[in-house]
Amino acid sequence: YLAANIEAVSNGQPAPYIAADGFLLFGMNLGGTGAIIGIAICMLTAKSERYRTLGKMSIFPSIFGISEPIMFGMPIVLNPIFMLPFIGIPILLQGITYLLMQANIIGRVVASAPWTTPPIISGFLITGGDWRAALWQGIEVVIAVAIYYPFFRMADKQSLKEEMEENPALEQGDDTFE
Asked: Is 61 left (phi over 0), alpha (psi -120 to 50) or beta?
């Protein structure tokens, strides 16, 4: 499909296919499998030391689509708290992206970019320079953060409780959970 889109655009025609190679960089692989950049950003607000440290270590790789530090460090794998958002967020974002491309609100994929290209930049590049696609990817990141946040907060609260039980001398300060 990507080759057909490239050929059509090269001949002055609109790109005929939506699900061309690179389409998964919208939503599905936004920061890594499962739109994991959303939870990486959430971890920067963690109260527990475990997730705060993991967030600092994983945000940079996540920007470049590398999700393994979170997938196995959190872990997301076999974690019932994150099953719903991990599966649901990419489906939601891909579905909306499909509809936006179908309605010609954002451009279709007409170029190839490495899978490690950060969000916003990749949206711009793979749609042939469509700023609306780049903007949409930025909005997708915000949506992923908003949906992951309540699930992350639940896990962070649990982790903080475990940390406090292991070391009662830790001070919670003013940022305690209710």
From this structure: alpha
Q: What is the pLDDT of residues 62-115, one digit of tens each?
A: 999 999 999 998 898 888 999 999 999 999 999 999 999 999 999 999 999 999
Cα distance between residue 35 and residue 19, in whole Å: 18
**Residue 101 Cα distances to 20, 94, 122, 150, 170, angstroms:** 11, 10, 15, 30, 51
Report the alpha-carbon angle 47-145-140, nearest 5.
165
Angle between the N-to-C axes of helices 49-63 and 131-166, in degrees from 0 to 180, rounded to the nearest 10 = 160
Q: Whose CA is closest to 136, among 103, 169, 172?
A: 103
Q: Radius of gyration (Cα) for the chain, nearest Å?
A: 19
Q: Which two tokens stand for residue 137?
A: 């990817």
Distances (CA, A) of 1 to 22, 65, 136, 139, 154: 10, 23, 22, 26, 42
pTM value > 0.90: no
Backbone dihedral angles phi then psi of residue 22, each to the nearest 5 degrees? 110, -20
